[in-house]
Write a structure and sequence with these properties.
The protein is of the alpha+beta class. The chain has helices at about 50-60, 100-110, 115-130, 145-155, 175-190, 205-210, 225-230, 235-240; strands at about 15-20, 25-35, 40-45, 65-70, 75, 85-90, 165, 195-200, 210-215, 220-225, 245-255, 260-265, 270-275, 285-290, 295-300, 305-315, 320-325, 330-335, 350-355, 360-365.
């Protein structure tokens, strides 16, 4: 094992140019990432993008074809999974059905040969952490899905790993329970203070849980950063489409107005949009503008981007109402907050409306 000296204040986990293929098919391609100590980090992307393979590489279940994986300053090239300072929670939870909750949590500690007194103390602490003291004698089949998930967490945390790797652990739960367990996960992570690396295909889940996230595509990291930064400033059409809802409008640069570009929408004649000049966009160049539905409002003349259209869809969704508006062949999606007791009339299907948004709401995408 190489004990290459990384500073204690550096990242807990560092990936340097990591690649992995299976049968000639690239699963992970030249991924470099730093994951901080105590961070809740999400790997986000669709099925087959490489996020689970990347998690398995960190855990040591797979070995990279190229690149380095460094955990707490140690190159993991010669370190088998059972000696890495990480533990994994799987989607299936992988609990022993014939063992009680207490015995499931204690299992790994017994395998490590810890004294009985220390095992008992640590199991008690883990039961308290996940609030399952009253269920300690039950078998997994007698527990709810959320309780089984907490047992799996407790078992993984009992070994005091430096990082916990979670492979879509909420995927099997219904929506209400998933929402509850998201709050539980964040609370547990804050209490124990260790690094969580969370794999998910659910964009809302990634943004709700993580301090930072990496959006993956075809084995590569397309963009990484804080959820708000990635959501508000996507670097590509793929990220804008995948992370949340976005109006991605193909357009052509027709000039500049001070610090803003003037962009003619390709799908609608006479629609010219102003957006911040991101640099490097030549006159006549084809680009896309991404505008989030919640940033488009009805009839506010203070905004420079103003278009007229017809409502083709109107749907009430509780906290928001969602609309589709046809602007001369260009369909824009709008999300309008619903407020209790609001007296203003709601747009209906077939209504002629005016839509507006500020220049800063548009993000110019060159790829």
């Amino acid at each position: 094992m190489s004990a290459s000296a990384e500073p204690a204040s550096g990242p807990l986990i560092r990936l340097e140019g990591v690649s992995k293929s299976f049968g000639g098919v690239a699963a992970v391609v030249d991924v470099s990432l730093d994951i901080a100590r105590g961070e809740f980090f999400a790997l986000l992307g669709p099925s087959g993008c490489g996020k689970t393979t990347l998690l398995r590489l960190i855990a040591g279940f797979e070995m990279p074809d190229a690149g380095r994986i460094v955990i707490d300053g140690i190159d993991m090239a010669a370190t088998p999974p059972w000696h890495r300072p990480v533990n994994t929670v799987f989607q299936s939870y992988a609990l022993f059905p014939h063992m009680s909750v207490r015995a499931n949590i204690a299992f790994g500690l017994k395998q490590d040969g810890l004294p009985k007194r220390e095992i008992d103390e640590r199991v008690r602490a883990m039961l308290a952490l996940v609030r399952l003291e009253s269920e300690a004698g039950r078998k997994p089949a007698q527990l709810s899905g959320g309780q089984r998930q907490r047992v799996a967490l407790a078992r993984a945390l009992a070994k005091l790993p430096k990082a916990l790797l979670l492979d879509e652990p909420l995927a099997a739960l219904d929506r209400k329970l998933r929402d509850e367990m998201q709050s539980e996960l964040v609370a547990i992570q804050r209490r124990v203070g260790i690094t969580f690396i969370f794999v998910t295909h659910d964009q809302d889940e990634a943004m709700t849980l993580s301090d930072r996230l990496a959006v993956m595509r075809a084995g590569r990291v397309e963009q990484e950063g804080a959820p708000r930064a990635v959501y508000e400033r996507p670097v590509s059409r793929y990220v804008a489409d995948f992370l949340g809802r976005a109006n991605v409008i193909p357009a052509r640069c027709v000039g500049r107005d001070g610090a803003h570009l003037r962009l003619a929408a390709e799908a609608a004649s006479n629609v010219v949009i102003q957006a911040p000049d991101c640099g490097g966009v030549a006159d006549g160049a084809s680009v896309c503008i991404a505008v989030r539905p919640e940033n488009i409002v009805f009839a506010e003349p203070r905004h420079p981007n103003r278009v007229r259209g017809t409502v083709t869809e109107a749907a009430y969704a509780g906290d928001v109402s969602r609309y589709a508006v046809d602007v001369g062949g260009l369909v824009l999606r709008v999300a309008r907050p619903n407020r209790a007791g609001e007296a203003a009339p709601q747009p209906m299907r077939g209504d002629a409306v005016e839509l507006c948004w500020p220049e800063a709401a548009g993000v110019v995408l060159t790829r």
